[in-house]
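Note to self: keep these together.
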Amino acid sequence: MTASSISATPAAANPAAKRRWLVAGVLLLVVIAGFFDRISIAVLFTNSEFNQAIGIGFNPPMLGLLMTSFLFAYGVSGVLLSFIGDIYGPRRSLAVGATLWGIFMVLIGAASSFTSMIIYRVLLGLAEGPQFALVNKVVKRWFPKHEQARANSVWMVGSPLGSAIGFPLTIALVAAFGWRSSFYALAILNIVIIVPLVLMLVRDWPPHREAEARAEEASTTTMTGSIGIFLKDWRFWMILLFNSACLVYLWGLNAWLPSYLQKVQHFDLKSLGFFASLPFILMFFGELLGGYISDRIGRRAIVCFVGLFMAGALIYVVSFVSNPYAAAMVMALSAGFWGSALPPLFAMAAQIIPPQVTASGVGVYNGAGNLIGACSPLLMGWIIGTAGNFNAGLLVLVGAGVIGSIAMLPLIKRY
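Structure:
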């Protein structure tokens, strides 16, 4: 049987491929654990013990820098290191990466100064940068084209679930055991649970596509040549711009949502956990719905456009809502629309980027997006500190929604 005939065999018809959804489930857990690590610091922005321990007090620009330093390193790593999935395979790369996440979370928990905290956050960002590229490569190999948006939505909901669960979980851990122990607990999750699951259940290729694996390895097309193809493709730059805007929104929301709810809407600690989670709960359902709709109608770009545009528009509406519960609900609805844009984006990227360099291509557009998105927490912190107004900082998210959605317009007719 030829590689092409194997590729044409529906995944669902092959018994060995039936575990593909189990593999997607493991990828979901990998992403959830990664998001726990990324957003846990934001819960501590208003924690006086934490601020005293690192010696800065409540200083919005410096607190924003804690998130931005991680994201900048995350973006650089995504661009420069995602090729490891194409060379060493996504399974091994994910296992080594999760081990490093755990080590760096221990070091963050032990940090005693702002400088050391920045250094360890940078190292964590470098280790986590290739993650999305690696899991996307697994999905592309394990799932047929008509299932890839739904499969991507499975692991992508790890982003909102990581925040929805991570915020109240970190709040509870900090309240019960202190801020240092919260980092140690997340380190244990990575090393004791995530690494063994990846090694036991994830494979670089499904068994029924081994011939394609050999064919790809024997391909005469060089990686450099393939990378050059997508870098010269204007469609790639459109998805890069769109993804950058999405990440400006995401990281700005993750960094400042808990502080916004406490300082502007005056939610107490009991209510904070729920309302900090609510946007990411709706983001979860938005990602599932966006993946389903885009697979069902076979159109990716229009779902992306509507999702991000509405996300930005609703954040603008928040500034005019005086009731704190209504404002929190509108913000949550905005996040739900944002979530609907991500699965079709990654499915569209899989159509545009050459298969030999899927991990590298996703790494470039996701890494570059995170470099731009990294500016969001710091920029919002600077605006909030300068203007003394959280609503002014939220305009960064509004602008991201408008600019990013425009990038989808040239792709709507074709994708």
